[in-house]
Design goal:
Elements: E1 9-13, H1 20-30, E2 36-40, H2 59-71, E3 75-78, H3 82-90, E4 95-98, H4 100-103, H5 106-116, E5 122-126, H6 133-146, E6 151-155, H7 173-181, E7 187-189, H8 191-195, H9 198-210, E8 215-219, H10 237-246, H11 261-297, H12 304-320, H13 325-354
Helix pairs in contact: 1-2, 3-5, 5-6, 7-11, 11-13, 12-13
The structure holds phosphoenolpyruvate and manganese (II) ion (MN).
Length: 355
């Protein structure tokens, strides 16, 4: 079977199947849109904390079968254990996806492969929670070894340690690198889990299409505010249809390969620059907090000893990363100048408050 997807595939549906009505009503509203090629829904939900909604379980498979019967939409569900695969297969599920938490654990992926052996079904592998490309590739390889079906990747962003508007920071350079290393694996973007907030979903989806991703997986719920999981990021069906109608689908190359090497490098640079800016903003925010602290304790904004330590340790780290001393020093001076400016402003405010 070919590993190429010519047109972006759009998969839409709720984060979780909650009730039969919710599933069928959501499907009824989105089924008529020609771009939507499959209906997604979580049946067994991996939750970070116990006590959250863990999915409706097996009975939800019956609700999904009704979606397929009534609207002819192929179905996609998350599988995390061989038992999920068996049950989903019995229910005639067409696309399986491996969730971010499962991809993160090679033992779990290996266990899953036992039940996927010899199957000719579509399997999508989400990126692991952490930005670890080897782990993502490893999971894809493990699955490709045992299945003859189409294996795809889903980019759903990475757990952010830095301040960012996203629930999961996209780090576009990582899926781009995956595409470079495994050009035969189509990559779908999941703007819902990247955004974590419905207002951002459209722009992330468009960005993915501009990077020539092979498809999108988007969450939609009949009553998003009352959804039992991922309430903030799910779109009402009407909003999803509007979003899809506003997306610009770019021409893809006939062979499905999507970018020249130069474009790919430039996109990586864009993504890295935006992460640098987000980190700088976070640094300045912390500087502001230090300024507030100093203000009430009457500590000077500039402290020579601390500054010398910063320069020395950063130059050392920079050198070990292959950055020139001169460059690191200039960059630090510029960052430090801005920090001093911020703290001096805070001090001035204090003086004004006194007068
Ligand atoms: C989901 O798709 O609802 C889900 C749980 O996703 P992820 O594995 O990306 O967190
Ligand atoms: Mn979700």
């Amino acid at each position: 079977m070919s590993h190429q997807v010519r047109k972006p595939i759009i998969i839409a549906g709720p984060c979780s199947a909650e009730t039969e009505e919710q599933v069928l009503q959501t499907a009824a509203k989105v089924a008529g849109h020609s771009a939507i090629k499959a209906f997604r829904s979580g049946v067994w939900k991996p939750r970070s904390r116990p006590g959250s909604f863990e999915g409706a379980g097996d009975k939800a498979l019956g609700w999904l079968q009704k979606v397929k019967k009534e609207y002819g939409l192929p179905l996609a569900v998350e599988v995390a254990t061989p038992m999920h695969v068996e049950k989903a297969l019995e229910a005639g599920i067409d696309y399986f996806w491996v969730g971010a938490r499962t991809t993160s654990n090679p033992f779990s992926v290996q266990e899953l492969t036992k039940s996927l052996k010899g199957l000719d079904v579509h399997i999508m592998v989400k990126n692991p929670v952490n930005p670890d490309l080897a782990l993502w590739i490893g999971a894809i390889e493990r699955i490709m070894k045992v299945t003859s079906g189409q294996v795809m990747a889903i980019h759903r962003g990475f757990y952010p340690y830095e301040q960012t508007p996203y629930r999961n920071i996209p780090k576009w350079e990582i899926p781009i690198e995956l595409k470079t290393r495994m050009p035969e694996v189509p990559i779908i973007c999941d703007p819902s889990h990247i955004s974590g907030n419905r207002d951002l979903v459209g722009e992330v989806a468009q960005y993915a299409l501009d990077l020539n991703f092979d498809g999108l997986m988007i969450e939609t719920h009949i009553d998003p505010d009352n959804a039992l999981s991922d309430a903030n990021q799910q779109l009402e069906p009407a909003a999803l249809l509007e979003l899809l109608d506003n997306l610009q689908f770019r021409e893809q190359n006939v062979n499905g390969s999507v970018q020249t090497a130069l474009e790919s490098f430039r996109n990586q640079i864009d993504s890295i620059d935006s992460q640098i800016l987000e980190l700088l903003a976070q640094r300045m925010e912390t500087t502001r907090k230090i300024g507030e602290y100093k203000k009430y304790r009457n500590v000077a904004a500039f402290q020579l000893k601390r500054w010398k330590n910063i320069v020395r340790s950063r130059i050392e780290t920079g050198s070990s990363l292959g950055l020139s001393q001169d460059f690191v020093k200039k960059m630090l001076q510029s960052v430090h100048k801005e920090s001093i400016r911020i703290q001096s402003e805070i001090m001035k405010q204090k003086d004004k408050e006194k007068n």
